[in-house]
Write a structure and sequence with these properties.
about 350 residues; alpha/beta; five-stranded parallel sheet; five-stranded mixed sheet
């Protein structure tokens, strides 16, 4: 089993050597640097598992070192333990705000140093395992969502390039339209993938939530989404009824992504010429959105049931867009249910008054 690598950045040679001796005795592989600039170069070169750094140093101090570490993907997640003779609260807070993993005041006991290192390495190992799992999950979702439009774009562009003289102007126009349409679809998938990735990292605690809560005009967002879907699904007859008629606090982009995704899902599930009814209203002081259609117009009952199960909590990462809808609903403490009766099917999404508290 390979040793953990630790970089010691300390301008006092005697203290640096003392720390290195302690760590070597504990079985760590140790690298030394006399200032932050050299430390940064060694961090990029050796990618240590942990860095111990003094704060007050010539050329580049500890605070500047950690700022520069975070600018490089290779070193951004390396935990840093600060050493300092200063004990003011402002210094401690500054170090922690910059991303410091721990803070030891000189002089310190060897036992305290070793315990801090082992604690940080244990946390890093756990976080790395969880991040690797998230990365693997996310990576496995990309191809299925992106392959189809990408293949269409490559196929049509290849035909136009290799056989330009064989096509009429009408045929060329049709192929250009197909390329343009698939490019837009691909862009939608990429944007949804990035949105989903950001949302999942926040939801699983790997990243702080930096999305603002905004007072949104629900009906305006519903109307805008419906108008966009009319051009994408011109053979679906969209109807909209509102009894909500007020603003609602929501995380930015979440409601828009949810409505757009739901309309895409249902529009693709029903026959051309169907009427799709969208309603907004109040329920238990919260927001209720209902999407309904005639059951006889459903194209494939089995597929619809499977997709409904995904949204209600059975992830299927081959269908990232549907899984994204589930995460938005759960993230905002919402619920989604599908009902049927009197020849109709309807989907009800509900967000209660406490929906802004991120659910874990």
């Amino acid at each position: 089993m390979s040793k953990f690598k630790i970089l010691v950045v300390e301008d006092s040679e005697s203290l640096r050597e003392e720390i290195s001796f302690i760590l070597n005795m504990e079985g760590f592989e140790v690298f030394e640097a006399a200032d932050g600039k050299i430390g940064l170069e060694m961090a990029v070169k050796y990618e240590p598992d942990l860095i111990i750094s003094d704060i007050q140093m010539p050329i580049m101090d500890g605070f500047e070192l950690i700022k520069n570490l975070q600018l490089n993907l290779k070193t951004a997640l390396i935990p840093v333990i600060f050493l300092t003779a200063k004990t003011t609260f402002d210094d401690i807070r500054k170090g922690m705000n910059l991303g410091g993993a721990d803070y030891l005041t000189k002089p310190f006991l060897a036992e305290d140093l070793v315990n801090s290192i082992k604690g940080r390495l244990k946390n890093k190992k756990l976080v790395k395992h969880r991040l690797d799992k998230v990365s693997l999950d996310i990576g496995s979702r990309i191809p299925e969502e992106l392959k189809s439009p990408l293949h269409e774009i490559i196929g049509y562009s290849y035909l136009m390039k290799e056989n330009e003289g064989d096509f009429s102007e009408v045929e060329k126009s049709d192929m250009l339209e197909a390329i343009h349409s698939n490019a837009n679809t691909l862009l939608d998938h990429v944007e949804n993938y990035l949105f989903y990735t950001e949302l999942e990292l926040v939801y699983k605690g790997f990243k702080k939530n930096q999305v603002n809560i905004t007072s949104l005009n629900v009906d305006k967002i519903l109307n805008q989404s419906i108008e966009r879907k009319k051009s994408k699904h011109p053979l679906i007859d969209y109807k909209f009824i509102s009894t909500f008629k007020k603003n609602y606090d929501f995380f930015e982009k979440h409601l828009e992504k949810l409505i757009s995704g739901l309309l895409n899902w249902v529009s693709a599930s029903i026959k051309s010429g169907s009427v799709l009814m969208v309603e907004s209203g109040v329920k238990k002081k919260g927001l209720k959105i209902i999407i309904s259609f005639e059951k006889k117009n459903l194209v494939n009952e089995e597929v619809f049931k499977k997709q409904t199960a995904i949204i209600q909590g059975v992830p299927d990462y081959k269908n990232l867009n549907i899984t994204m809808l589930h995460l938005i609903i759960v993230f905002n403490n919402g619920t989604i249910n599908v009902y049927e009766g009197d020849g109709k099917k309807w989907i009800e999404i509900f967000f209660g008054p406490d929906h802004k508290k991120i659910k874990k």
